[in-house]
Automatic annotation (TrEMBL):
It comes from Alishewanella tabrizica. It catalyses: 3-hydroxy-2-methylpropanoate + NAD(+) = 2-methyl-3-oxopropanoate + NADH + H(+). It holds the Pfam family NAD_binding_2. Residues 165-290 form the 3-hydroxyisobutyrate dehydrogenase-like NAD-binding domain. Pathway: Amino-acid degradation; L-valine degradation. This is 3-hydroxyisobutyrate dehydrogenase. Belongs to the HIBADH-related family. The lineage of its organism: Bacteria, Pseudomonadati, Pseudomonadota, Gammaproteobacteria, Alteromonadales. Keywords: Branched-chain amino acid catabolism, NAD, Oxidoreductase. PANTHER family: 3-HYDROXYISOBUTYRATE DEHYDROGENASE, MITOCHONDRIAL (PTHR22981:SF7), 3-HYDROXYISOBUTYRATE DEHYDROGENASE-RELATED (PTHR22981). It comes from the Bacteria. Its EC number is 1.1.1.31.
Length: 297
């Protein structure tokens, strides 16, 4: 079992770190949130007093932070930990950030002789808790193979998307599609409700029809259709609207750079930005359903 440092113990990072502990790894954690640290301590983690302290002697360093500024700040900022990391360690950043920032970090680590992969995830908080995440890795084949020592205890599907940054490109393509599916599913369910249908019956019908998709099946945005999803829990937990807006911004930037046409991604981004500006940034992204519900607002 490996000596692992885990930094960023939020909705995703917390349960991911817990799965590493359960698998028998020696896990040292750090987060800015005291509550997150206490929770991990109760699960058997060693709590570090700083990020620099956490990475001391670690073979694998995992980070799961909100956005690129946090990731670049952690490793390369004023108090950056790049000089505290063992030369033979592998850094695995699982945050969703832009490919350019991932490459910038990988290049800076490489200059110090430290290996790096970008390894964003799909599967949500449910997947993080169950250890069934999909990891989408950018980096060398050798580092991808090495990372399996820890990734296999947090995820079920491990993909090597290509060179450094490729994991992030694949991830934002996925999340752009996810946002479009969430908006479309919400729109269809509300139209059914407006026309007298029970959303559960409509969901069952569409799940056996051509409208079937991940959001309808596993993350239904209409309250009380599924148990144990954010929509049935006041849209708490899960994947925040703020983070979806961030990812759709990354998708837009990537599309501008590559000259790609993404009209539905742009529409979904505008809908999520409006939803965020209406005060819903901290709610789960399935709360976009409320944008269609006449009884809300
Ligand atoms: P979150 O906001 O719940 O957690 C982020 C954690 O990072 C917080 O606990 C925060 O205190 C900590 N943090 C921030 N800056 C720090 C620093 N400098 N040092 C130490 N800790 C720091 O976010 P999340 O939902 O866990 O998402 C994390 C990443 O995973 C994001 O990039 C997101 O886009 C991606 N992601 C989220 C989901 C999801 O369903 N929530 C799914 C896939 C990918």
């Amino acid at each position: 079992m490996a000596k692992v440092a885990f930094i960023g113990l939020g909705n995703m990072g917390g349960p991911m770190a817990i799965n590493l502990i359960k698998a028998g790894h020696d896990v040292t954690v750090f987060d800015l949130s005291v509550a997150a640290l206490s929770q991990l301590k109760a699960e058997g983690a060693v709590v570090a007093s700083s990020a620099a302290d956490a990475v001391n002697g670690a073979e694998f360093i995992l980070s799961m932070l909100p956005a690129a500024k946090h990731v670049l700040g952690l490793y390369l900022g004023e108090q950056g930990i790049v000089n505290q990391i063992n030369k033979d360690a592998l850094v695995i950043d699982c945050s969703t950030i832009d490919a350019q920032s991932a490459r910038k970090l990988g290049d800076a680590l490489a200059q110090q002789g430290i290996a790096f992969i970008d390894a964003p995830v799909s599967g949500g908080v449910g997947g993080a808790k169950a250890g069934t995440l999909t990891f989408i890795v950018g980096g060398s084949e050798q580092d991808f193979e090495r990372a399996k020592t820890v990734l296999a205890h947090m995820g079920k599907n491990l993909f090597h998307a290509g060179a450094m940054g490729a994991g992030q490109v694949a991830k934002i393509c996925n999340n752009m599609l996810l946002s479009i599916l969430m908006v479309g599913t919400s729109e269809a369910l509300q139209m059914g409700i407006d026309n007298g249908l029970d959303p559960k019956v409509l969901s069952d019908i569409m799940l056996k029809s051509s409208g079937r998709n991940w959001t309808l099946e596993l993350y239904n945005p209409c309250p009380d259709v599924l148990p144990n999803v954010p929509s049935s829990n006041g849209y708490q937990g899960g994947f925040m609207v703020d983070l979806m807006v961030k990812d759709l911004g990354l998708a837009l930037e990537a599309a501008l750079q590559s000259g790609s046409s993404t009209p539905l991604g742009a529409l979904a981004r505008n809908m999520y930005v409006s939803h965020q500006r209406a005060g819903n940034g901290k709610l789960d992204f399935s709360s976009i359903f409320n944008a269609f519900d006449k009884s809300v607002g």
